[in-house]
Write a structure and sequence with these properties.
Layout (H helix, E strand, L loop, with lengths): L1 H28 L9 E2 L8 E2 L1 H18 L2 H22 L3 H12 L1
Antiparallel strand pairs: 1-2
């Protein structure tokens, strides 16, 4: 079970890093983000980028979260509560309450 958890964490962190790099690169092309250095890691694939400043900020955020929660149990509790909080906020801001009530009923099962 430990090996599966480690593999899932590695895959999730790679997805988050790739998403952060892609969002910043797209924001830069729209002039919606301050200029940062972009390193293209592949000559063959255009979308593969590395942004050292974003990587550093993600590292600092991980250290802050780790120090703030102190234990993996507290991090797990926070992670478990977050989808419910997201659905509650969606419900309060939703224009169509029938859809949001349907989603909340599905999430409670």
């Amino acid at each position: 079970m430990f090996v599966v958890a480690v593999a899932a964490a590695i895959i999730a962190s790679q997805a988050m890093i790739s998403a952060a790099f892609s969002i910043v690169a797209q924001s830069l092309s729209l002039n919606c983000f301050p200029r940062v250095k972009i390193v293209h890691t592949s000559a063959k694939y255009e979308g593969q980028v590395y942004i050292p400043e974003i990587n550093y900020m993600l590292m600092v955020a991980c250290v802050i979260v780790t120090l703030a929660f102190k234990t993996t149990e507290k991090i797990g509790h926070a992670y478990g509560k977050q989808p419910g909080n997201l659905l509650k906020s969606f419900n309060s801001y939703s224009w169509d309450s029938k859809i949001s009530n349907f989603l909340l009923r599905k999430s409670k099962r």
